[in-house]
Every structure is written in structure tokens, then in C-alpha cells.
Write a structure and sequence with these properties.
This protein is low in regular secondary structure. Helices cover about 10% and strands about 10% of the residues. The protein has a two-stranded antiparallel ribbon. A hairpin with a 2-residue loop joins β1 and β2. The protein is elongated, with a radius of gyration of 16 Å.
Length: about 50
Amino acid sequence: MPVVHISLIQGRGKEAKKAGAPKESVTVVFHDIDGDSWAAGGVLFSDRVKK
């Protein structure tokens, strides 16, 4: 499951964050991380059995 990190320049209020941003101003950056370098619940993703 993807994890999304949102980076904003500080100063936006709570209501502005709830409102979101127009899609034209959104930049998406993909960081591919090897399954040996990521774990959840103490289990590496590379060790999880695919169902």
C-alpha cells in the first residue's frame, strides 16, 4: 500500500490544508524503495508472502 507524504511551505492554516490544492499545482515524486529497506509490524516487505 502506498504511503503519501505531503510537503508544504509553512504558513497555511487548517482550513487551507483541508481545502487541498488545484491538481495543476500538485507535483508527484515517486521514490522506489526496495522491500529489504521497508518494514511494517516488524516484518520486511521482502519477507511478506504475496496472496
